[in-house]
Design goal:
By secondary structure, the protein is an alpha/beta fold. It has eight helices and five strands, in the order βαβααβαβααβαα. The protein starts with 10 loop residues before the first strand and ends with a helix.
């Protein structure tokens, strides 16, 4: 089993569908590390104040280009933190073919090691979490539709965790215990 010191000056991508616990787990993981930054991918989407095209089913090429731009920006920020001696815990919805692209982009920046943690609670658990949240992240997407993309179209790289019945602390413990499996670069 690897220790949290394995994460010194690393990039850790925490991904999963909306309401899977990415923000909470990424923050808790970063708080357990001696030098860490929590890079919130959605901030890069919200920085676009005019001309933003949301990535929704059938949104087209501009939405896809903006999604890729968002991922590149978060990777560059993560690179900056790593080069400054911090662990960058990046949290975003990175599914399907984009997951491998993200890893390749970070790798192309020369940042290592890279870890991927995929939070994959059951769809019914996500529905319950979404109902209990003060915000709704789904818009045009449905929980079950994104869950299908996660399970059927996302490459099985990194550490995949069913967090349906895990506490935050238990999930972070599982991440730290599974670092060898989570390492992708």
């Amino acid at each position: 089993m690897a220790s949290s010191s394995s994460l010194d000056s690393a990039v850790v991508l925490v991904t999963g569908i909306m309401a899977s616990g990415k923000s909470t787990i990424a923050q808790s993981l970063a708080e357990r590390l001696p030098r860490a930054a929590h890079v919130r991918g959605d901030l890069f989407r919200r920085m676009v104040v005019s001309g933003r095209v949301e990535y929704e089913p059938g949104a087209g090429a501009e939405a896809e280009a903006q999604l890729r731009l968002r991922y590149r920006q978060s990777a560059r920020v993560a690179e900056g933190y790593v080069r400054g001696g911090f662990t960058a815990v990046v949290q975003d919805v990175v599914l399907g073919e984009y997951l491998q692209e993200y890893v390749e982009y970070v790798d192309g920046l020369g940042v290592r090691p890279v870890y991927v943690v995929v939070l994959a609670p059951r769809a019914d658990a996500v529905v319950a979490r979404e109902a209990a949240r003060g915000k709704s992240g789904y818009g045009e997407w449905g929980v079950r539709e994104l869950d299908r993309v996660l399970r059927e179209e996302t490459p099985r790289i990194g550490l995949w965790l069913d967090t349906s019945d895990l506490t935050v602390d238990a999930t972070v413990d599982a991440v730290l215990a599974g670092l060898a499996e989570a390492r992708v670069g």
